[in-house]
Design goal:
heterodimer; A: 249 residues; alpha+beta; Tick-borne Encephalitis virus Glycoprotein, domain 1; four-stranded antiparallel sheet; disordered C terminus; B: mainly alpha; 9 helices; 71% helix
Chain lengths: 249, 268
């Protein structure tokens, strides 16, 4: 068993695997974000990632026993990131209309909803969130116009919403780009906006809010933390190990 | 290709002239004068970055023009750090690298300032982009420092006639690559946090993210092979560092402008 592990988890195997993953990443870049994301979320790829995660986890534990703490932290970080991503993918797969993980909500001022939709025209109902969202006011701010012929670029757009959870007092949140609200594990994002007509034919702005739930997020963030500490530790070793001005490892 | 007859452009050309004179003089007996021009180039480069920041009203890291300006200003402090760490004199290579970096900023990229879109108005803007600027310039430098290793086809042993020079090239390139790798990891980490806050997910499979990950994997491969083989195959180490550098160049140029790779990182 030990000989098998030494053979399949050796440094040279890891090096060539990294090169393979590097060119694989370029291949996925050529597919484009949507297709690459869809391809990676297929079951065989999820199983492949799970096997890779297991291999890196064993490497991390072995490094810990060999007192190579930088390597243990670095590989442990990779395991947490990949594991967290897998948990998020499983959450998407087991999502149901009663417990959705991802969806959009489009509203004009004064509207209230708990329904999430998907699709290019938001035509597919994916489920209901366990709270209601009422859009109080949607606002768009622009930079001062330099050229009166053209519309000034948008500086900020935001949705002031009232969130009503069951058995809790209502609360008001101002959701804007880079400032999502977090309600019962759901991140609510200001995704986009546009113009439509109200029932009397007057032009009105509508907002599109995105709802996301990801139970693997904490693991991913912890993993990135470990990865950074491991990489920093390794770099410090590279600088420390010197003999007569010549580094050696 | 156009010449910029603006204060910003003149600062860039002053930096380029100082770097060019440094490159020429550092190869002659007048090294002290060359170092003087090298330092004055750094002063001009810093002035160009500060001027850009004041002129646009935001940190100058929004597009490729600003990205390249910042990279040129990073080089002189890096050369000093390298001298302090390993005693290596890398002024010539660094001044040459700075000169090459400023060619696109001086003659190719548009300097017209643009207002920050809502997605870029975040406290993570400077740390995320700044760590990538620093990482990319450090990784480029690492490739330049590995050039002597291309002359070493076999294993590098102590009885090799140029052992000291080549092992020092290996040490400087590896230490520089390690710094760049840490900064790239920081950039990935901060980018994932920002992606979650701004776009809804820490990883979007965006082409630029994927190229960045490909670069990260290439340097991970380099470190694994260096640990495995030591100095048994320095040529392969130099090749990996140059492939990583090629990925950095492609990420900064082709990936940013090609429609094949259009994605969410379209601000540049």
């Amino acid at each position: 068993m030990k000989r098998l592990l030494n053979r399949f988890l050796s440094l040279s195997v890891a090096a060539w695997l990294c090169i393979l993953l590097s060119f694989g990443s370029i291949a996925l870049a050529c597919l484009g974000a949507t297709r690459a994301g869809e391809w990676m979320s297929r079951l065989p790829n999820l199983i492949g990632i799970a096997v890779l995660t297991l291999g890196i986890a064993i490497t991390s534990v072995r490094a810990l026993f060999r007192r190579r703490f930088d390597s243990a932290l670095f590989h442990g970080g990779c395991v947490l990131i990949m594991g967290g991503w897998l948990v998020g993918q499983v959450a998407l797969r087991v999502a149901s209309p009663e417990n959705p993980a991802n969806g959009l909500m489009a509203m004009i001022d004064g509207e209230m909803s708990d329904q999430l939709f998907q699709g290019a025209r938001l035509e597919k109902l994916v489920g209901r969130v366990p709270f209601t969202v009422k859009l109080e006011k949607f606002t768009v701010e622009r930079y001062p116009a330099r050229d009166p012929q053209h519309e000034a670029p948008v500086r900020e757009y935001s949705s002031r919403v009232t969130i009503q959870e069951r058995n809790k007092p209502a609360r008001v949140e101002n959701i804007r780009v880079n400032h999502p609200a977090i309600v019962q594990g759901f991140y609510i994002y200001q995704m986009s906006w546009g113009q439509t007509q109200d029932r009397w034919g007057n032009p009105v702005n509508y907002t599109v809010l995105q709802f996301k739930r990801d139970p693997g997020l904490l693991s991913v963030y912890s993993g990135f933390g470990l990865l950074f500490v491991g990489a920093f530790w390794f770099a410090a070793r590279c600088f420390r190990l010197k003999r007569g001005g010549v580094a050696c490892l | 290709m156009s010449v910029k007859w603006t204060p910003q452009g003149l600062l860039i050309y002053a930096t380029m002239a100082a770097f060019l004179l440094a490159v020429i003089l550092l190869r002659t007996e007048r090294k002290a004068l060359g170092r003087g021009f090298w330092f004055s180039g750094f002063v001009f480069a810093t002035a160009a970055v500060v001027f850009r920041g004041i002129h646009t009203g935001h940190p100058p890291m929004q597009n490729l023009f600003e990205f390249f300006l910042c990279m040129a200003a990073f080089l002189w402090p890096l050369a000093q750090l390298s001298r302090y760490q390993t005693g290596s004199d890398t002024d010539f290579q660094d001044a040459l690298l700075g000169l090459l970096i400023l060619v696109p900023a001086g003659f190719v990229f548009d300097e017209e300032p643009r207002m920050l879109p809502p997605a870029l108005q975040s406290p993570l803007f400077i740390p995320h982009v700044g760590s990538y600027v620093a990482a990319y310039i450090i990784l480029a430098r690492s490739a330049f420092m590995a050039i002597p290793l291309f002359r070493c086809a076999g294993p590098l042993t102590e009885d090799h006639p140029r052992f000291r020079e080549l092992s020092r090239a290996d040490a400087v390139s590896r230490q520089t690559a390690a710094m760049g790798f840490v900064l790239m990891t920081v950039g990935l980490f901060l980018g994932s946090i920002w992606g979650k806050i701004c776009w809804g997910h820490y990883w979007q499979w965006d082409p630029k993210e994927m190229w960045s990950l490909a670069t990260w994997f290439m340097y991970a491969a380099y470190f694994h092979l260096r640990l495995r083989n030591g100095l048994r195959n320095p040529l392969l180490l130099a090749i990996l560092l140059w492939i990583g550098f090629l990925f950095v160049v492609l990420t900064l140029t082709w990936i940013n402008v090609s429609r094949l790779f259009s994605g969410m990182h379209t601000y540049a």
